[in-house]
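User: quick one, fold this
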Amino acid sequence: MEPVANIGGMELVYKKPHTLTEIPTHYCPGCAHGVVHKILMEVVDEMGIQEETIGVAPVGCSVFAYNYMNIDMQEAAHGRASAVATGIKRVLPNKYVFSYQGDGDLAAIGTGETIHTVNRGENIMILFINNGIYGMTGGQMAPTSLLGMKTTTSPFGREASTMGNPLKITELIAQLPGAYFVTRHAVYNTAAVRKLKKAIEVSFKYQKLNKGTCFIEVVSNCPNGWKMTPVESNQWLEKNMLPFYPLGDIKVPKS
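Assistant:
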C-alpha cells in the first residue's frame, strides 16, 4: 500500500480502511479471519466499491463478518450463503456480490448449494475459509480435516476407513464449467497475504465480465480448535495443511 500521510516527520505506511468498522474483534488470538477481513475490505476500499458491494455470511465463525465489514451484509442459513448470494446477484446484477463461508458450512451442509451455484456459473465470488475443523461449535471433525487429525469427534485421529478422506472441494469446483477462476491461498505470512489480496481484487474485476463464478479458498489456522498457540498453528498449517492443500491457481480464465 502506498504511504498515505506524513505525521511529525514520520511516514504513515498503513491506515485502517474505512470499510472496516470500529467494533473490537471477537475472534480468537491468531485467528486468520481478522486478516482475511482486513484484506477483503482493503480491496473494496481501494477499488472504491463500498456502496456497490454486498456480502453474505452464514452460520459459523464467519457469521460475525457483518459486525466488522462496513458494507451491505446479509446473513444466510447454515450452508445456504451461495444460494442467497445468487438471489441477490440476479436481482441486483450490477453489484459486487460475495459469500464468506467456512469449511464446515460450505463443504458439509452447503455442499449441494455450492456445487450447483458454481455449476450454473453464478456471477459471484465465493470466499472459502478452510481451517479443517468446526471452529465455533466445539472443534468437531470437518469434511476438510486431515487424515490423523484429532478433533472432538475424532479424538484418536481421522481414519479413512470409517470417516472418509478429506474433501478437496476446491479441486471439485474447478471441474465445473461454470467456474471461471478458482484459486487457493493462505495468510500465514506476508507474501501469502499479498497474493490473496491480488486474487480478491481480480475476482471482483471478473464479475464485470459475466463469465461465471470466482472461487477462492483460504487455507487457514484455528489456534483454539487445534489446541495450539498462534505461532504453533501457523507452523502446523505450513507443515501439514499446505502439502495436502497446495497453494496456487487451479483454474484460470483462458486468454
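User: anything notable?
Assistant: The CA atoms of residues 18 and 148 lie 43 Å apart.
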